[in-house]
Amino acid sequence: MPNTHLEKTDSKTKIVQEEPNLKGTFIAVMFVFAFLVGTWFSVWGIFLNR
Amino acid sequence: MHMHRLEKLWMFIGGGTLLFFLIVLGIGAFIQGAQPPSCLTVIDPQRVEAHDPFKEENLGLQEVEGGDLDYVVNVVASAFNYDFGKDEEGNVVRKIRIPAGSKVMFQGTTKDVVHGFQVAGTNANMMLEPGYINQVEVTLDNPGVYTIVCNEYCGTGHQFMTAQVEVYEE
Fold first, then answer.
1. Does the record's keyword annotation contain Transmembrane (chain A) (predicted)?
2. In chain B, which ranges are E strands?
3. To the nearest whole angstrom, how far is the Cα of A5 from the nearest Cα of chain B?
4. pLDDT score for B34
5. Average per-residue pLDDT in chain A?
6. A 23-42 residues with CB below 8 A of B?
7. Of B10, B122, B142, Cβ closest to residue A26
8. What are the residue boundaries of the structural domains of chain B, listed by start?
9. By three-state DSSP, how is residue B132 classified?
10. How is domain B41-168 classified at the CATH fold level?
11. Contacts of A29 in chain B (CB under 8 A)
């Protein structure tokens, strides 16, 4: 006869949400930021110089 | 709501950039008085020569005595020509000669359809619309020959609609 007895039913499972690692995403966002600022200032430079 | 530290940081940078550009716009518009090339100055397109700047003798390069400006260039566009009047010998002006460093206001209108007026390679670039007078002010510091082009498609001869500005060193 199979043993249907559950030994541990009262244990609490602790749910730990780990912080995702966003370092790579942050670097990608900074690339976009640098591109926007770089193009804006170069166009402004053209405007001022001619 | 919980947010990642880096997420907060890049949202702050994004918001800051938006704020920076809005402040730049605000300074230009409200402190320096920047406005679009045309500020709703109207004219009857059927009778442009009734308006002083566009009388035959006032077309082309006009020196300005005193004031902020050195020169005014009056132009009447029509398909497919820029009318800068005539020189002393009675020849049609195709090239305008301006000394380097001059502050110039280009002032134009059109008799028929919408035309463009761009002095390619400078910051002078505006639309000429029937019924409106448009103006643009530039300081021409760099010597050279610049082509004036129509950059609004105006008909079959659009690509032939050109003139020249020569900026020379004194």
1. yes
2. 41-42, 60-63, 71-78, 81-83, 95-99, 102-110, 115-119, 125-128, 132-140, 144-149, 162-168
3. 41
4. 81
5. 83
6. 23, 25-26, 29-30, 33, 36-37
7. B10
8. 1-34, 41-168
9. strand
10. Immunoglobulin-like (2.60.40)
11. 10, 13
Query: How high does pLDDT run on average in chain B?
Result: 92
Task: Find out whether the peptide bond into B84 is cis, omega within 30 degrees of 0.
Answer: no
Residue of B nearest to A40 (CA): B21
Phi, psi at B137, each rounded to 5°: -110, 130
CA–CA gap between residue B166 and residue B169 (Å, rounded): 10
Q: Which residue of B has its CA nearest to A17?
A: B2
Interchain CB distance below 8 Å, B6 and A20: no
For residue B105, the cross-strand partners are B72, B137
- State the Cα–Cα distance between residues A46 and B165, nearest whole angstrom: 19
Cβ pairs A/B, distance under 8 A: 24
* Residue B50, min C-alpha distance to chain A (Å): 35
Asked if B100 contacts B76 with a C-beta cutoff of 8 angstroms, the reply is no
- The better pLDDT of the pair B143, A15 is held by B143
The rounded distance, in Å, linking the Cα atoms of A20 and A30 is 18
* ipTM > 0.85 (yes/no): no
